[in-house]
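Lab notebook: predicted structure, single chain.

Context: the supervisor wants predicted structures on file for every construct in the current expression panel, including those that have not yet been purified. This is the next one on the list. No modifications to the sequence; it matches the entry in the shared construct table.
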Amino acid sequence: MQEIWFTLLGILSLLLVSPGSPEAAAPRSMLADAQTVLQITKDDRILGNPEAPITIVEYASLTCPHCAHFANDVLPEIKKEWIDTGKAKLVLRDFPLDEPALRAAMIARCAPPDRYYAFADTFFAAQEKWVRTADYREALARLAKLGGMGKEAFDTCLKNTELENKIVEGRLKATQELDVNSTPTFFVNGSKLAGAPTVEEFEKLLSSLAAKS
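Prediction complete. Output recorded below exactly as produced.
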């Protein structure tokens, strides 16, 4: 069950992946083969109208403070102005930086699809509490219970080797084919934006894309 995860840790030590950059880098366009990786699949969870013209793909770790800042402080504004109005959609993809992030991602994925973002938002909102506790699994179990996931379902989820491998493989694919090396990293209609963008920076980029459509 742990083989792929340990392999990932070895690769991470070579890549020197950081937990996130405090400043957002300027967006840049991706090559055609990278665009293929960014195509939405049946495994993706979509927040907003699937037919929205602007697609925001976010690679994030549930233990990343910058990712939590985006989810807690930036996304609500973007959601109100762009996602709830049908102008943009968000696809959150797992990029776990450590084992607690991997386990939290698995729990969110085991929730019903329409509850995925509720679980992810809860984990981000309570990040400082469950990440720093002595027993993060027990803390996650308590949060999952609040979302309607019982202990048996929780334990079964964490034993799901297929899901574990799929998340880790997706993380490796993002590193190798999209050059994702920090969290959060965004791709907005194919343009890469790494770091921790402010509401204003995101608004500027989304407004520019909307003007071209």
